[in-house]
Amino acid sequence: MKIAVFPGSFDPITLGHFDIIERAVPLFDKLIIAIGQNSQKKYMFPLEKRIEFIRKATEQFHNVEVDFFEGLTVDYCLEKEAQFILRGLRNPADFEFEKAIAHTNRTLAHKKLETVFLLTSSGKSFISSSIVREIITHGGEYELLVPDVVRV
Ligand code: ADP
């Protein structure tokens, strides 16, 4: 069974995340969307809300699960018996950052974890949760950038 973990903050889930999820669904037997919860970090949406948004946005996919974890992504993946980490690539800056993380995770997992990257579909690569939060804070039309189920 091919199990992939898609880790992230998802604060909130965007159409960029959704694009990656939708395209990864046929590639794996099970896709676990896992919210990495860092107690030091301040989020706009509480964990329960972020989980609810992802659940509702992905309910049509029968092989998708939504979960959260604290601590290292590798430890979570090994606990779930996942062989793959899924990440999205928007631009060269993402690539540089993700390259270091992917090598580190493979080393920490003693080569038991491969990171699989999907390129964002054109037209979605400018979207980020931080920009969405900024738009929400200033009363802009954030609905254009997130799945329909994400409403504040
Ligand atoms: P993190 O805090 O780990 O960066 P995010 O929720 O911001 O968490 O992102 C999780 C994953 O989703 C990352 O792999 C990121 O590259 C990817 N991602 C975020 N926005 C987009 C987008 N617009 N298109 C494709 N992938 C994206």
Number of strands: 5
Helical content (DSSP H or I, runs of 4+): 25-40%
Radius of gyration: 15 Å
Low-confidence parts, pLDDT < 50 over ≥5 residues? none
Main sheet summary: 5 strands, parallel
Give the H and E element order.
Answer: EHEHEHEHEH
Enumerate the distinct ligands: adenosine-5'-diphosphate
CATH classification, class level: Alpha Beta
The CATH architecture name reads 3-Layer(aba) Sandwich
Q: What is the mean predicted local confidence, pLDDT?
A: 97
What is the terminal-to-terminal distance? 37 Å
- Count of discrete structural domains: 1
Count of alpha/pi helices: 5
- Strands across the major sheet, in which order? 3-2-1-4-5
Helix/strand-derived class? alpha/beta
Could you say which overall geometry the principal axes of the C-alpha atoms support?
Answer: globular
Present the secondary structure layout.
Elements: E1 3-8, H1 15-24, E2 30-36, H2 47-57, E3 64-69, H3 73-79, E4 84-89, H4 92-108, E5 114-119, H5 129-137
Parallel strand pairs: 1-2, 1-4, 2-3, 4-5
The structure holds adenosine-5'-diphosphate (ADP).
